[in-house]
């Protein structure tokens, strides 16, 4: 039977929802056990949070001062050592997971499976290629450990609150690399929902016209309690910071509602919203590709349509 180790992603003392999504994928493998590994300098609250996720068998912790910041060069050797005896090591396919998982795979001497979107068997998976235009079947060698990243947009977050998994501290004795050091973390501060986990997202594109005009996107998002996103064209034009970019080279999201405003719908952008529930498109170009996948489309001037929408919402 397989035994799975899920690497917890966290920031500022809280688990990222991507961890619970990775647990859902692990449960789908139908393994003997699904354990979560928490690496931090202060593991207590994080371990307690992870223990509540349904489907988790055990929570393992490695508490070291070097783990205060998620540096892949520091975390990977510890994860590789903790992975002894596990058939699978899973991490969310986020910036964190894409950074640390390849190092873990290299240390274990295996090829990584990326962006798992469905589980077909204990060592068989489906993943997207060609910007999501094709889905391929991947079979990993059952004689080696599987290291994989989980496409979080394709998996629901496992429920939390009804579980109480035991917590065990691991003592990993090793000399860690010193060539990588943490300098600082710069990130945008916002009271809006997190883009990657929000149920509703309002995105703007080049059609919005300017950084100043993007206020109309923020206003609508706040009106309906949504996160704000953007196309790469809007980011490249300097309308918004790059952490709001949605698409192949940005964030892959799966909100229940996605509103695309002034976005033509390049394939790279559509890749990022393939798993969205309802897609609403507003664009003055009736031939824009975004309308081919939109559930609801409005053709017209966004600066006239959005105020009318806000008025209708009340």
From TrEMBL:
**SUPFAM superfamilies tied to this protein:** Adenine nucleotide alpha hydrolases-like (SSF52402), DHS-like NAD/FAD-binding domain (SSF52467)
Task: Output the Gene3D superfamilies linked to this UniProt entry.
Answer: HUPs, TPP-binding domain
Listed A to Z, the keywords are: Electron transport, FAD, Flavoprotein, Transport
Give the similarity note.
Answer: Belongs to the ETF alpha-subunit/FixB family.
Q: Could you tell me which residue ranges the Electron transfer flavoprotein alpha/beta-subunit N-terminal domain spans?
A: 4-186
Q: What is this protein called?
A: Electron transfer flavoprotein subunit beta
Organism from which the protein derives: Dyella acidisoli
